Amino acid sequence: MPTANRDGTSIAYEVDGPADGEPVVFVEGLGYGRWMWRWQRRVLSEEYRTILPDNRGTGESDAPSGPYTIEGMAADLEAVLADVGVEEAHVVGASMGGMIAQTYALEYDRAATISLLCTSPGGPEAEPVPERTQQRLLDVPEGADERETIRYRMEPAVSDGFYDENPDLVDRIVDWRLESDADEEPRAAQAAAVEAFDESDRVSDLEVPALVLHGTEDRVVPVENAELLAERLPDASLALCEGGPHLFFIEESAWVNERLREFLSRHPLEEGRA
Q1: Any idea where the AB hydrolase-1 domain is (predicted)?
Q2: Is residue 25 a contact partner of residue 38, using CB atoms and an 8 Å limit?
């Protein structure tokens, strides 16, 4: 697998799709491996050149000691896109990945569009993660093994009934998470970066076209954050997935993919800039 190097840290990434396709880079959420984008990658790689980095601390990337920052992970993303050799790309980020996408588009000039899923601009007006959810995401049930801990922590991110209705898929997700998600120390370092994130004063400077997608029943990042983003971004389109949970890009992947494809088709890259 190819890697980019920034300040001695190796950032792994994967490239798929046609070599002449417009680049679309997918940025992961807190602790998640690039498996989380498999539903979008499968569809968009038919037409687009998809780039999937592992955030530092995750998957096949190095896991240096913290602290991590969103600015640092945006710099990692710049190193990846420079290594791939693209001049311009569509940037898609979910949750923490959406925070990285915002900072990346503010600090660097390769982002032609940004798609922000289940994320927040941070700052005092943002709706925080509910206290009950925070506790659930950090707890380890007494006597629980690794698989049980993953299921317990992930439950607020999915809809009621998802586990019962999709037992085989849930087992596969647990397998993927065990294989490539961040271990406890780098996960905590990423969580600290999310806690410190605040682009609320700068997000109005983002002039690139933006797509804001969010589930109305998100129990991790409340949907009010999507509305706040859409208000402040100068060129934003907002679409809410009725009943969608935090991981709506998994549960409602067809809905998400349709809107991503439509948005990307409306904003093609300039010829020769891919």
Answers
A1: 23-252
A2: no
pLDDT tens for each residue of 2-57? 999 999 999 999 999 999 999 999 999 999 999 999 999 999 999 999 999 999 99
**Contact at 8 Å (CB) between 83 and 107?**
no
State the pTM of this model.
0.97
Average pLDDT over residues 135-146: 86
Dihedral angle of Cα 118, 119, 120, 126, to the nearest 10 degrees: 40
Rounded Cα distance between 66 and 51, Å, is: 25
CA triplet 95, 100, 103: central angle to 5 degrees?
Answer: 130
Q: Which of 239, 232, 249 is nearest to 102 (CA)?
A: 232
In the block, which residue shows the tokens 């898609």? 92
As a whole number of angstroms, the distance between CA 272 and CA 207 comes to 21
Cβ neighbour number for residue 272 with a 10 Å cutoff? 7
Per-residue model confidence as pLDDT tens digits over 119-137: 999 999 999 999 999 888 8
Length of the chain: 274
237: tokens are 């389109």
